[in-house]
Amino acid sequence: MSRVLNYTLFSIAVLLTASSARAHHSHAMFDTTKQVTLVGTVKELQWMNPHCWIQVLVPDPNHPEAAPVEWGVEMDSPLAMFRRGWRPDTLKAGDKITVVVNPLRDGQTGGQVVSVTGPDGKPIGRAAVAEK
Amino acid sequence: MMIRQITAAVTATVLGGCLYVAQAQNSSKERIEAFAKLPDWSGLWEWDILVGQADGQQLSPEGLSKVKALLEAMRPTFSASWQPKYDQAMKALDAAVAADPNRPPATQQPCVIPPFPATYLPGIYEWRVTPEETTLISTLGSVRHIYTDGRSHPPKNELWPTRMGDSVGRWESDTLVVDTVATKPEITVIEFAKPFPVTVPMSDQLHFVERIRMVNHNEMQIQFTTEDPVALAQRIQAAITYARVTDINRMIDDEFADCGPGTDRNPVVNGRFTTVVH
């Protein structure tokens, strides 16, 4: 599985300044050596700072009778997402999507977005580039 | 007698008014000429390492390469007397990270309006250039005032450390040379393998020089020098590039400073990210 290039931008962005910016959390919480593919339904696209989020309901294909599991998928700020083609209404509750994430290291159901494929099967926004 | 007095008063007023108008016209003409000599830095700009950044904030291969080079150029060499302070700060960072790998250490403020120099950060930048001042505004909420009206820094007893410090500048042809003092006496240092930066106290002689110019229509370069004769064994010199932003034509507030303990979505609680809807 390819490893996406993923370095904490905020830590790069505060070189030799008086104090740090965007230090609300570390991206080290995500395992960038792994990717998990989520095939599910949008619960909500949250358009907010400092991160937009997609809450995705993911059924277990081995246990379709069980309730789907909710995953939180972290994305960039609204301004950054807007510049890559996202809009506050790009996804709606009920949309079927496929999301690839770098999962949380602690095993909880969350991750950092790598790519999103929309209900029409087309990619949305800008996916991360795989490291060569 | 009364008529003479009134006539004299009216004449003085009219003459005074004419003189005022003449001076204003000359000032306007001079100011227009001063404006005409300034470079056109209009438009929107972003730090070029962010070009091609992905939705999860992952940098492009080109961006990553530039960052690595920049980190190397900005690695500080502390003086012998100051190295223990850095070592102590790094030790404290390591301990804080070990205690909670996902939370910034207590020395890191969560989501503040970026302090000086506020130039190498995410977001979009806009320059406002006038003969008296160049102002740098970012979508993260930072505003830098660089005075170019010939003034010097205020005397020491009129200066105290602030987030943006005191910046004065002068034009050398198309290059703006900026001198900044009185920032908070600390710097933040990145070790590439560390999840968080470390803040190191510096002396009150911390001083910065920037040379800013537009290289071509789509590119600006900022060369910066950090000096501290007490804390640093040598100057730190590096450069960053701004790329012109063409996909958007407005400054959208990134509301960065809204992120704080009350709005932070992390860490995960009961198996999911906590959410706060504004």
Structural class of chain B: alpha+beta
Form type of chain B: elongated
Shape of chain A: globular
Average pLDDT, all residues of chain B: 86
Low-pLDDT residue intervals, each spanning 5 or more residues of chain A: 1-23
Task: Identify the notable features of this structure and list them briefly.
heterodimer; A: 132 residues; mainly beta; OB fold (Dihydrolipoamide Acetyltransferase, E2P); 5-stranded mixed barrel; 2 helices; 31% strand; globular; disordered N terminus; B: 278 residues; alpha+beta; 24% helix; elongated; disordered C terminus
Please give a structural write-up:
- By secondary structure, chain A is mainly β.
- Chain A has a single domain, classed as OB fold (Dihydrolipoamide Acetyltransferase, E2P), CATH 2.40.50.
- In chain A, about 10% of the residues lie in helices and about 30% in strands.
- Chain A has two helices and six strands.
- Chain A is globular, with a radius of gyration of 15 Å.
- The N and C termini of chain A lie close together (about 10 Å).
- Chain B starts with a helix and ends in a 5-residue tail after the last strand.
- Chain B has one domain (about 45-250).
- Chain B is elongated and about 95 Å long.
- The model of chain B is unreliable at about 260-278 (pLDDT under 50).
- Chain B contains three helices and 13 strands.
- In chain B, the strands form three sheets. A nine-stranded mixed β-barrel of chain B has the order 1-2-3-4-5-6-9-10-11. In chain B, strands 7-8 form a two-stranded antiparallel ribbon.
- Chain B is an alpha+beta fold.
- Chains A and B meet through helix 1, strand 3, helix 2 and strand 5 of A and helix 2, strand 7 and strand 13 of B.
